[in-house]
């Protein structure tokens, strides 16, 4: 049954962009820098310098409704959906990464998150080639797959980032003042 009579995949695409927007705004607002706003500077901080914890929470925010939908489809229709497993793995790895405070285990939890994100990405691309699906649903699958590729790389790049209470950005490789 299509939501609001929209073609297959379009409601999921709308939800994906809505959840990304919520994750970005929430991530920017989570900054310890009181001057950081939801503007260009805040967006750049979120995309380039946000700590692994912020990135993991943003990733889980995007994953949660899709996991809930996959579980719902399984319970209500008996529709086996690998997304129920892959999104759960992503959310578990996000929780481990977000709760991590040790630099050594941060690399391990970030690697776990990277692997789970890649598994989820493959789960999105597989149906495009394996099944004859409507074009709009394939559009959703490819777009979501590309989003999860980006999220994989973005989370991995942020594994060394930390933000201290005084607004200083630090990495195991460099330090700079957030302006």
What brief labels describe this structure?
179 residues; mainly alpha; 3-stranded antiparallel sheet; 3 strands; disordered C terminus
Write a structural description:
This protein has about 180 residues and is mostly helical. The chain has helices at about 10-30, 40-50, 50-75, 85-100, 105-130, 135-155, and strands at about 160-165, 170, 175. It has a 3-stranded antiparallel β-sheet, with no helix packed on it. The termini are far apart. Residues about 165-179 have low confidence and may be disordered.
> Nearest-angstrom radius of gyration?
17 Å
Secondary-structure element order, as H and E?
HHHHHHEEE
What percent strand?
under 5%
What is the count of helical runs? Answer: 6
Poorly predicted regions are 164-179
Specify the structural class.
Answer: mainly alpha
Strand order of the largest sheet: 1-2-3
Mean pLDDT: 84
Number of strands: 3
